[in-house]
Amino acid sequence: MKYTPSSGKIEVAGGYRGHSVYIRVTDNGSGISEEDLPHVFERFYRGDKARSRAEGGTGLGLSIAKWIVEEHGGSIQLDSQPDHGTRVEVLFPRSKRAEP
Ligand SMILES: Nc1ncnc2c1ncn2[C@@H]1O[C@H](COP(=O)(O)OP(=O)(O)OP(=O)(O)O)[C@@H](O)[C@H]1O
Ligand SMILES: [Mg+2]
Protein backbone atom coordinates (compact mmCIF):
# COMPACT_ATOMS: atom_id res chain seq x y z
CA MET A 1 0.00 0.00 0.00
CA LYS A 2 2.90 2.33 0.79
CA TYR A 3 4.35 2.01 -2.71
CA THR A 4 1.10 2.11 -4.68
CA PRO A 5 -0.95 5.28 -5.29
CA SER A 6 -4.54 5.30 -4.03
CA SER A 7 -5.67 5.07 -7.66
CA GLY A 8 -3.60 1.89 -8.09
CA LYS A 9 -4.42 -1.73 -7.60
CA ILE A 10 -3.17 -4.38 -5.20
CA GLU A 11 -4.19 -7.95 -5.79
CA VAL A 12 -3.87 -10.76 -3.28
CA ALA A 13 -4.20 -14.29 -4.55
CA GLY A 14 -3.54 -17.72 -3.19
CA GLY A 15 -3.95 -21.36 -3.97
CA TYR A 16 -2.33 -24.71 -4.39
CA ARG A 17 0.53 -25.47 -6.73
CA GLY A 18 1.71 -29.05 -6.71
CA HIS A 19 2.90 -29.84 -3.20
CA SER A 20 2.97 -26.16 -2.24
CA VAL A 21 0.60 -23.43 -1.16
CA TYR A 22 1.22 -20.00 -2.62
CA ILE A 23 0.26 -16.49 -1.57
CA ARG A 24 0.88 -13.78 -4.14
CA VAL A 25 0.62 -10.02 -3.71
CA THR A 26 0.81 -7.92 -6.87
CA ASP A 27 0.76 -4.14 -7.04
CA ASN A 28 0.99 -1.67 -9.89
CA GLY A 29 2.86 0.91 -7.84
CA SER A 30 6.32 2.45 -8.04
CA GLY A 31 8.25 -0.74 -8.66
CA ILE A 32 11.86 -1.15 -7.50
CA SER A 33 14.92 0.12 -9.34
CA GLU A 34 17.46 -2.33 -10.71
CA GLU A 35 19.97 -0.87 -8.28
CA ASP A 36 17.78 -1.48 -5.20
CA LEU A 37 16.39 -4.86 -6.20
CA PRO A 38 19.31 -7.06 -5.01
CA HIS A 39 19.18 -5.42 -1.56
CA VAL A 40 15.50 -5.29 -0.58
CA PHE A 41 15.69 -8.38 1.67
CA GLU A 42 18.60 -6.93 3.67
CA ARG A 43 17.80 -5.67 7.16
CA PHE A 44 17.27 -1.89 7.32
CA TYR A 45 17.74 -1.46 3.56
CA ARG A 46 15.43 1.17 2.12
CA GLY A 47 15.30 2.07 -1.53
CA ASP A 48 15.14 5.55 -3.01
CA LYS A 49 16.27 7.30 0.19
CA ALA A 50 14.53 10.68 -0.17
CA ARG A 51 11.15 9.26 -1.07
CA SER A 52 11.22 6.37 1.36
CA ARG A 53 12.14 8.67 4.24
CA ALA A 54 9.08 10.83 3.55
CA GLU A 55 6.86 7.73 3.53
CA GLY A 56 8.27 6.26 6.72
CA GLY A 57 9.29 2.69 7.43
CA THR A 58 12.20 0.82 8.89
CA GLY A 59 13.50 -1.28 6.00
CA LEU A 60 12.70 -4.41 8.00
CA GLY A 61 9.43 -5.54 6.41
CA LEU A 62 10.79 -7.81 3.70
CA SER A 63 13.68 -9.19 5.77
CA ILE A 64 11.27 -10.18 8.57
CA ALA A 65 8.85 -11.67 6.03
CA LYS A 66 11.66 -13.74 4.50
CA TRP A 67 12.80 -14.94 7.91
CA ILE A 68 9.29 -16.04 8.95
CA VAL A 69 8.65 -17.78 5.63
CA GLU A 70 11.96 -19.65 5.70
CA GLU A 71 11.43 -20.71 9.35
CA HIS A 72 8.27 -22.43 8.06
CA GLY A 73 10.18 -24.23 5.34
CA GLY A 74 8.92 -21.91 2.60
CA SER A 75 10.44 -19.50 0.15
CA ILE A 76 9.78 -15.94 -0.97
CA GLN A 77 10.38 -14.43 -4.37
CA LEU A 78 10.06 -10.84 -5.54
CA ASP A 79 9.82 -9.55 -9.09
CA SER A 80 9.60 -5.87 -9.85
CA GLN A 81 9.68 -3.45 -12.74
CA PRO A 82 10.33 0.23 -12.08
CA ASP A 83 7.17 2.33 -12.67
CA HIS A 84 5.10 -0.80 -13.35
CA GLY A 85 4.83 -2.65 -10.09
CA THR A 86 5.93 -5.45 -7.87
CA ARG A 87 4.91 -9.03 -7.30
CA VAL A 88 5.82 -10.97 -4.19
CA GLU A 89 5.13 -14.66 -3.99
CA VAL A 90 5.42 -16.82 -0.91
CA LEU A 91 5.47 -20.59 -1.22
CA PHE A 92 4.88 -22.98 1.68
CA PRO A 93 5.08 -26.75 1.59
CA ARG A 94 1.65 -28.33 1.99
CA SER A 95 1.19 -29.99 5.34
CA LYS A 96 0.71 -33.76 5.10
CA ARG A 97 -1.57 -33.64 8.12
CA ALA A 98 -3.93 -31.17 6.44
CA GLU A 99 -4.47 -33.46 3.48
CA PRO A 100 -7.67 -35.51 3.47
N1 LIG B 1 5.76 -3.27 -3.07
C1 LIG B 1 6.84 -2.50 -3.21
N2 LIG B 1 6.92 -1.60 -4.23
C2 LIG B 1 8.02 -0.84 -4.40
N3 LIG B 1 9.11 -0.87 -3.61
C3 LIG B 1 9.08 -1.73 -2.58
C4 LIG B 1 7.97 -2.59 -2.32
N4 LIG B 1 8.25 -3.33 -1.22
C5 LIG B 1 9.47 -2.97 -0.83
N5 LIG B 1 9.99 -2.00 -1.64
C6 LIG B 1 11.34 -1.39 -1.58
O1 LIG B 1 12.18 -2.25 -0.84
C7 LIG B 1 12.70 -1.58 0.31
C8 LIG B 1 12.74 -2.55 1.49
O2 LIG B 1 11.40 -2.96 1.79
P1 LIG B 1 10.99 -3.34 3.28
O3 LIG B 1 9.56 -3.77 3.24
O4 LIG B 1 12.00 -4.30 3.82
O5 LIG B 1 11.16 -1.98 4.09
P2 LIG B 1 10.26 -0.66 4.08
O6 LIG B 1 9.02 -0.89 3.29
O7 LIG B 1 11.17 0.45 3.65
O8 LIG B 1 9.92 -0.46 5.60
P3 LIG B 1 8.96 -1.37 6.54
O9 LIG B 1 9.90 -1.92 7.57
O10 LIG B 1 7.96 -0.45 7.06
O11 LIG B 1 8.38 -2.47 5.68
C9 LIG B 1 11.75 -0.39 0.51
O12 LIG B 1 12.40 0.69 1.15
C10 LIG B 1 11.35 -0.04 -0.89
O13 LIG B 1 12.35 0.76 -1.50
MG1 LIG C 1 7.79 -2.64 3.64
UniProtKB/TrEMBL annotation:
Pfam families: HATPase_c. Residues 1-96 form the Histidine kinase domain. InterPro entries: BphY/WalK/GraS-like (IPR050351), HATPase_C_sf (IPR036890), HATPase_dom (IPR003594), His_kinase_dom (IPR005467), Sig_transdc_His_kin-like_C (IPR004358). It is found in: Cell membrane. Keywords: ATP-binding, Kinase, Nucleotide-binding, Phosphoprotein, Transferase, Two-component regulatory system. Its EC number is 2.7.13.3. Its main location: membrane. GO terms for cellular component: plasma membrane. This is histidine kinase. It comes from Paenibacillus aurantius.
